[in-house]
Amino acid sequence: MVNPDIQGKRYPRTRPYIVGLEKLREFSAATFGNTADGFVVPPTFPIAIQEHSLSLVIADPEAGLDFSRVVHGEQRFIYERQLVPGDELTSELEVASVKSLGGNHMVTFNTEIFDKQDNLVCTAISTLVVRGEDA
Amino acid sequence: MPEFSALEVGQVVAEGEFPITRDSLVRYAGASGDFNPIHYRDDVAKQVGLPGVLAHGMLTMGIAIQPVLSWLEGSGEVVDYSVRFTKPVVVPAKGEAVVSVVATVAAKDEENSRVRVDLTTTFEGNTVLGKAQAWVKF
Predict the structure, then answer these.
(1) Closest listed residue to residue B117, CA positions, set B58, B77, B73, B74
(2) Minimal CA separation from B30 to chain A, in Å
(3) Chain-chain contact of A30 with B27 (C-beta, under 8 angstroms)
(4) In total, how many domains does chain B have?
(5) Chain B residues with CB inside 8 Å of A123's CB?
(6) pTM of the full predicted structure?
(7) What does DSSP assign to residue B128?
(8) B37 domain-assigned
(9) Does the beta carbon of B40 lie under 8 angstroms from any beta carbon of chain A?
């Protein structure tokens, strides 16, 4: 399901992601939000950045994460500031915990998202449930 | 536009109904980059034992905050937003799955000028997001 030994493992900083205005509008429209001038940046948009860090875990043979058995359990975003178009963001993921629960694994990832000046912009915390073979 | 001083715990501040269709799922897949086929292919959903094609959990999370954003009109900022995904939203090939959201002030932090807004998010009478909480700073 997932290798419990990856608890505490940190993955390398991702390449810069440049936040585009039209991408934000597209994301806002897709989440039933406003797309007019002066619209609010969708609060869940950092998931797209977290995705880049998560792909490193999925590609890591040591992690052994079977993504076909993954269900999203919990998600949280803690914002230091709002994203703005033009932000150049990188992210760094740490495996906060791996727990066993009734034949399933629960893995929690903390992904810190930084701007070009290396200031923390947002922390994305994601818990995935990896279903066991019999579940 | 809401004012922090006038807000009270227990007050319903915003509500919304959101009809999710297969079209919505394709749109969200493209916008988010999440192309897991369980969100658009009936055969794949069935094969992995799901009751049908499901809405992305992150789509439901993104939708649930919308009534709050409309209510705020920029007068406050969401500084912390968390949910648990408790039940899937099954989206039929034809027609729509209507997700309802009721946003209620659940706590008030006078010192930091913020409120916690709880988002009761339901589909077909069942709660689909547990502990859906957004802290809004004014």
Answers:
(1) B77
(2) 9
(3) yes
(4) 1
(5) none
(6) 0.96
(7) E
(8) no
(9) no
Q: ipTM of the assembly?
A: 0.96
- Exposed, middle or buried, A4 (CB in 10 Å: 0-12/13-18/19+)? middle
The first and second tokens of residue A80, run together, are: 């230091």
* B63 occurs within a structural domain: yes
In a domain, B85, yes or no: yes
- What pLDDT score was predicted for residue A135? 47
Report d(CA B12, CA B117) in Å as an integer. 9
CA-based nearest residue to B108, from B119, B96, B98, B117: B117
| CA distance linking residue A60 with residue A80, whole number of Å | 29
Highest mean predicted confidence (pLDDT) among A31-40, A66-75, A126-135, B68-77:
B68-77
Q: Identify the domain containing residue B105 by its residue range.
A: 8-20+55-137
The CATH number given to A4-130 is 3.10.129.10
Q: How far apart are CA A56 and CA A12, in angstroms?
A: 8
Contact B14, B76 (CB under 8 A): no
Asked if B61 contacts A44 with a C-beta cutoff of 8 angstroms, the reply is yes
What local confidence, expressed as pLDDT, does residue A34 receive? 87
The strands making up B126-137's β-sheet, listed across from edge to edge, are A17-18, A88-101, A104-114, A120-130, A70-79, B77-85, B126-137, B114-123, B97-109, B12-20
* Residue showing tokens 């968390």: B82
Give the CATH number of the domain where residue B63 resides. Answer: 3.10.129.10
Domain ranges within chain A, ordered by starting residue = 4-130
Chain B residues close to A79, C-beta within 8 Å? 77-81
